[in-house]
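Case study 2.
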Amino acid sequence: MPDSRDPVEARADDGHDLYEVSTWEVRTLFDRLAAGLYATGVSAARLFVVVLAFAILVVQFALGGLGAITDPIIGAFTLLSAVPALALAAYVWYADVTTSEPLELLVGTFVLGVLFAGFAGILNSIANSGLEALGLTAGVVGFVFQVVFFFLVVGPVEETVKLLAVRLYAYRKPQFDAVVDGAVYGAMAGLGFATIENAIYISGQTQDIADPLNLVVAGSGITAVRALAGPGHVIYSAFAGYYLGLAKFNEENAGPIVVKGLLIAALVHATYNSLSGVVPSVVASVTGVPGFVAFFGFIILYDGIFGYILFRKLGRYRTAYHEAHDEAPDGKKAEMTEFDG
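Prediction:
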């Protein structure tokens, strides 16, 4: 590996003071001022992002996009729609062979996943409005551009904002002390994103229904669909989060590793979006099964495949962890965890 030090530092002995020659540290009052301004600026930028995301959520409520959630029936449907995604996120947490992650970091990441979904919603809406303005949303041409839209906008944007929810908070904490922690926090960000997305879909399709019986009937259908769509968000962002964890412990290649994780998550996500509108219809027309059944079957199969790949990745980490635990030098064991007995 190339020496990352300046030639002067590399060749000088320990007796030379190279402060502001080829090295730097906080020494003077002015140094402390510079360091303080930098830290304040970084903290202010993080706070601004969170406040902006919260403001977008408030605007969504004010404009009626989430207003119907105040209805207890819609609220119950929203919670029910998140159950499968929650179960999958809980499994990823359970599969973490290292020490358990603290509840406050898990909840914080979930909340940021909820808040940052607004960024994706705005960017997706702007891009989609552009396609509509150009007349590129109808017919075969519209389908082609819709697929391009999924791969160039929806997948990358949504996976990036979910990863930002991890990077902005949990990633910076000392409790994020293993590669696999990235998958855990990525899953929590995906759960938050899926929850608010489900809320928007359910609220949007039921807010004009006044009759309670009709509301229950309509809400049940959309809730069932969103319940199956939610786990996908957990799977995609768990992949991206895993690579974020890998990047944290491989700083020399951190950038490419993060990009690889985002590419994997975005491609799997965009492929799902592209196929989910076509494959079930084809299957239904060929086999004669109801379209709803074909749609459910497609989601279960697709998420099952990539869920299994994620399961194998986490399993490989667990195996390596136990092997390293058993082969620790000088007979010393690594820190015991809840999985060791």
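Residues 78 and 199 are 5 Å apart (CA to CA).
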